[in-house]
Design goal:
By secondary structure, this protein is α+β, with helices and mostly antiparallel strands. It is 41% helix and 36% strand. It contains four helices and four strands, in the order ααααββββ. It is globular, with a radius of gyration of 16 Å.
Length: 140
């Protein structure tokens, strides 16, 4: 029963992704992710957090993790692949591959690419990141 419901939900999202609304949303959503990664690469905590919905259940823990990463690591992130999956009245769902690499000689970090499902939510008239589920990690 659960599998059937999941298949119906995925089929609905795929159908929504083909809609004209989804075609308009894709660049706006990718723009949010691009800004997030650019701010991360500048190690700008405030700008990075500005791309995340303040009501996200992971907002505080994400901020704490970024503060720690910016102190300890010198890594950059780049978008490898982005696909809008679908949307409803409240959320947009996308899939992205993001590569994270450290400067040569950095200890305690392995370059990697994550494959993730991302949720976006509107806050104050702007789309922002809401949540991330990592599907897999490939190390280099």
């Amino acid at each position: 029963m659960r599998s059937s419901a999941a298949l119906v939900a995925v089929a609905t999202l795929v159908a929504l992704a083909a809609s004209p609304v989804a075609a308009q949303l894709a660049p706006a959503i990718q723009y949010v992710l691009d800004n997030n990664l650019a701010s991360f690469n500048k190690r700008d905590l405030n700008a990075t957090m500005n791309t995340i919905d303040t009501r996200s259940p992971d907002y505080a823990s994400t901020k704490a993790a970024l503060e720690e990463q910016f102190k300890e690591l010198d890594v950059t992130a780049s978008l490898v692949k982005f696909t809008l999956i679908g949307h409803d009245d409240e959320f947009v769902v996308a899939r992205a591959s993001i590569r994270t690499a450290a400067k040569p000689g950095t200890k305690d970090f392995v370059d990697n690419t994550i494959d993730a499902i991302l949720l976006f939510h509107m806050e104050g008239g702007a789309w922002k990141l809401w949540d991330e589920t990592i599907l897999g990690v490939t190390t280099e």
